[in-house]
């Protein structure tokens, strides 16, 4: 699959070569760096390091050097950002035609694919302030489907905008590479818990319908310096593992390990402060999501984070990011795996009555808890 960067459009907003460096003097988090090439080589020390990280904060840099998959991700991310730039430049009424929230059974929206407009998510429940970012969730199932006609795609068919459909091969190659990297990490994590890696792989097969997608995000330039606007509010990711490529600051993580998967007020569950994550050239930023917490009954951590406009001089630029979310297959039941390193299920009546949800329904509820608005949602 081709993954060379496409030429920038006229008056391009996405120009990483022009971005100033991340400013000094800000409170930043010191994330550890894990080597993808060492993980691929089954380096025991590197495997232990990533395992310990995922039991703690759940965030780390992944050095993508010296591997084919890493090269695909590094080079493909810029090309996908440019496809996103063209998509976001479409008129608003046209973008709204691709809106998230396609109707499912009983008239309820079940699709988290498509366009999210500015202000669709509640950034602060106390004040009613809404988010400032727009993004496009591009479904893995459609981009990698073995069909030539977009109308035969399993998810949205021919409803994807032209700038995305024109780069379908690019998206497909990128998704396969990112999915493979995510599953490599998940496999070695559960193996250390005494779980056969096949158990986690069978819940995230590339060819099965799932919530996996590439999200292209555009955040506007900073409006003011003293109090940052919230582009994406405080949250933990819904899926199993996330692979982020970005070029400007803006991502912030909570200073302490925050282990609650779903918080109705959107706030961290332990005292601390927001720390900036400095983008690192040649590296992805990787974090676990709520499904990894669910599958391991809380052994791993889904790190709490948010996004603001970039700080200092970087804030004069729109902030683009490219994320791949690995999520469980739609029909997977969200319950803990069995392994010697995973706590035994409780036997109290309350635990026995816990509702068994499929991944599709569980992730949809997570999105509603975050305050995302869907057409027709109750």
From TrEMBL:
Please tell me whether the keyword Metal-binding is annotated for this protein: yes
Question: Where is region (Disordered) located?
Answer: 1-22
- Which InterPro entries did the record assign? DIOX_N, IPNS-like_FE2OG_OXY, IPNS-like_sf, Iron_ascorbate_oxido_reductase, Oxoglu/Fe-dep_dioxygenase_dom
Source species: Apiospora saccharicola
Q: Which PROSITE patterns match?
A: FE2OG_OXY (PS51471)
Question: By what name is this protein known?
Answer: Fe2OG dioxygenase domain-containing protein
Q: Which family does it belong to?
A: Belongs to the iron/ascorbate-dependent oxidoreductase family.
The residue stretches assigned to a coiled coil in this entry are none
